[in-house]
Amino acid sequence: DRDVTGVQTCALPISTTKRIFGRHAHEHLTFADVQSSIHYEDLDSATNAVEDAVKHHGIFRGEYRIRWPDNSQHWILTSGQVQYAEAKTPVSIIGITADVTERHQAMETLLQTEKLAAVGRLSSAIAHEINNPLESVTNLIYLAECSTAIEDTRHYLQLADRELRRVSNIVTQTLRFHKQLSAPRMVTPQELFDSVLSMQQGRVVNSGVAVEQ
Predict the structure, then answer these.
(1) Please, which residues bridge with residue 83 across strands?
(2) What is the pTM of this model?
């Protein structure tokens, strides 16, 4: 809606440029039409770039989202310079505009692929962390069933209970990560240490590491 110092009605007769903005060759395209097609989140930066070029007799360049008349979203790369009359009044803009939608779509596809790959790696790591204590529980229950000494049976069951609590903690931590809680809360270093040690208990024991608190 902003007036860019008198250049908003400059006609853009090139059919390629019209096609970039989703118009047919016979349709009239003005600078005002170009402005109105820019995504509202990018409009200020695009307008400011032109205003700055008008003010300093410089070149503007930017990459913006635009909306076609059919409401589809596209990306453009534009660069230009303001032309002035003898009284230094801006009268027109000359420049180039390129459709870079395919590049942005490729980048978005790559980003989504990377996200899926990250989710796959995370899922694999979580499955591994859960599977280890569950295997321990299975073995401990077997030992408890085969044991004839009450004390040994109690010891195996206590270890199994500890492993099941570790599984529960892993699941809880995973759900917290998924929910991405936005409300911060106070935690103590002890809570953080206990959480990490609980999840890494198997590795700590297998590595022969003694943790002193």
Answers:
(1) 92
(2) 0.49
Across-strand partners of 63?
77
Backbone φ and ψ of 68, nearest 5°: -80, 165
Tens-place pLDDT, residues 188-208: 888 777 777 776 776 777 777
The 3-state secondary structure of 119-134 reads HHHHHHHHHHHHHHHH
Q: Which of 74, 11, 5 is nearest to 39 (CA)?
A: 74
- Measuring CA to CA, which residue among 185, 141, 142, 191 is closest to residue 169? 191
| Largest interatomic CA distance in the chain | 106
In the structure encoding, which two tokens stand for residue 44, read together? 């200020």
Give tens-digit pLDDT for 74-103. 999 988 888 888 767 777 778 888 889 999
CB 19 within 8 A of CB 66: no
